[in-house]
Write a structure and sequence with these properties.
The protein has 135 residues and is an alpha+beta fold. It is built from 7 helices and 5 strands, in the order βαββαβαααααβ.
């Protein structure tokens, strides 16, 4: 079996959310809300139960992580210094203000996000011995 990496799958690793889990049984990524926990023993935690039935957390990539990676690769030392002092919403808002103000930052943002996400999913698959292919 192979995990099919396509735009739908890539969208499930965004926002840094841990709501998606990968199933070794059928090589799909499932939303935690759709998982049946009816057979979970009362004395077992949800995470332990999911792992016991062959599920592992799917890779999560937060906006902050992507922004920091982008700035490290494409930003100036001055911009890195400014953004290094921020986190959360302040970081995200300030980053987009700079992107909107400086055309050199605008070029390639979407491509960078796509490449970065592909790279992180590929690394996650390799770390977890998951066969995969790109659509």
């Amino acid at each position: 079996m192979e995990l099919l990496i396509n735009s739908d799958l890539l969208s499930k690793c965004g926002s840094g959310s841990s709501e998606y889990w990968f199933s070794y049984k059928d090589y799909t990524v499932k939303n935690i809300q759709d998982l049946d926990t009816g057979a979970k023993p009362d004395d077992m935690g949800q995470t332990t139960y999911f792992v016991s039935i062959g599920l592992i957390p799917f890779v999560t990539i937060g906006h902050e992580e992507i922004i920091r990676a982008f700035i490290n690769e494409r930003g100036s030392g001055k911009l890195q210094s400014i953004l290094d002092k921020m986190d959360g919403e302040e970081l995200i808002e300030t980053f987009w203000k700079y992107v909107n103000a400086y055309s050199e930052l605008q070029e390639g943002v979407n491509e960078f996000v796509s490449q970065y996400t592909h790279k992180k999913v590929t690394e996650w698959c390799n770390e977890n011995s998951i066969n995969y292919r790109f659509e």
